């Protein structure tokens, strides 16, 4: 609702979508889903931050996305070794 109230242009939909995705992901018990949604939202915020020229925020959110992808890869390798 707040996203719709603060609507400025088409790019205003990006924060709404990213927030819905992260809210869904953080509510899950499966850590893989949480990591996937964290990666998606990290890169979603990078996209938005570049559009609005918030480059420092883009770097921070890019690091979040990359760390989530690294966690997914490490977790997958660990699970494959235990099986």
Outline the biggest β-sheet: none
Fraction of residues in H or I helices: over 70%
Specify the number of helices: 4
> Taking all residues together, what is the mean pLDDT?
90
Structural summary, described in words:
With 83 residues, the chain is an all-alpha fold. The chain is 81% helix and 0% strand. It contains four helices and no strands. Helix 2 runs antiparallel to helix 3 and helix 3 (31-51) runs antiparallel to helix 4. It is elongated, with a radius of gyration of 15 Å. The N and C termini lie far apart (45 Å). The mean pLDDT is 90.
Features of the shown structure:
83 residues; mainly alpha; 4 helices; 81% helix; 0% strand; elongated
In short:
This protein has about 80 residues and is mostly helical.
What is this structure's SSE topology?
Elements: H1 2-5, H2 13-26, H3 31-51, H4 55-82
């Amino acid at each position: 609702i707040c996203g719709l109230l603060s609507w400025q242009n088409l790019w205003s939909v990006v924060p709404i979508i990213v927030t819905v995705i992260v809210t869904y992901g953080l509510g899950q018990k499966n850590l893989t889903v949480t990591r996937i949604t964290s990666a998606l939202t990290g890169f979603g915020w990078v996209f938005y931050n570049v559009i609005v020229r918030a480059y420092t925020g883009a770097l921070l959110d890019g690091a979040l996305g990359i760390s989530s992808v690294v966690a997914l890869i490490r977790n997958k390798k660990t699970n494959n070794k235990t099986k």
